[in-house]
Known about the structure:
The chain has helices at 2-19, 27-34, 45-49, and strands spanning 55-59, 68-75, 81-87, 106-112. The protein is α+β, with helices and mostly antiparallel strands.
Amino acid sequence: xxxxxxxxxxxxxxxxxxxxxxxxxxxILRNLRANLPVDVPPQFIPRLRRNKGAVCEVxxxxxxxKQYMLCWRPLGKPVSVAILAYYPANSIGPPxxxxxxxxVGYGLKKYRF
Length: 113
């Protein structure tokens, strides 16, 4: 039974990887890498310091094929670093904070605050 679950999980990851645009072909990811934020947005710092999970912003919400998400993930104890990650749209479903664990994201940069 466990073997079939592993195969099913592998199949889902394979579909996600093949249905999402390749990173080098993703215009949003290219633009983000060329214009990274300078700092963690000040409104996110208190929640990140409390280490209550990622703080995410969803863009193009409601446009399934264009929806993407940026998340700031806390790192360290005490939290003094956040990692900015980009989650692109995919054919299975748009990224959202509720599916953060299953979405395939790209870490962009670490920020100290």
